[in-house]
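Data deposition worksheet. Section B asks for the primary sequence of the deposited chain exactly as it was used as input, without tags or linkers unless they were present during the calculation. Section C holds the resulting structure in token form. Section D is free text for depositor observations; keep each observation to a single sentence. Incomplete worksheets are returned to the depositor.
Section A, Depositor: J.P.
Section B:
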Amino acid sequence: TKYFTVKVTSALANSSTISATSIALGSSVKMTAKATGGTAPYRYAYYCKLSGSSKYTLLSGPTTAASYTYKPGRAATYNFAVKVADAKNKTATKYFTVQVKK
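Section C:
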């Protein structure tokens, strides 16, 4: 008889949050990255784009920093994304929309 030990991990999940979905111009939003499952350690990347734009801009990452604060430069609707990656390069992305008002 031969015995084996198998480690089963749950799928990588992204449960990141954002501090607000509506802010006044001059204020900031804070993205807080949180990953569960997968294989630690985790890396995070933070992205932003103006709503209607086709391409996200990388704000920070990949990094082990579990939060990022961004101050939008104009009144508009912004889309943010937090991408988490585990040690086996599995990824999960969570998206947010923030309205910046004058």
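Section D:
The chain has a mean pLDDT of 95.
The chain has no helices and ten strands.
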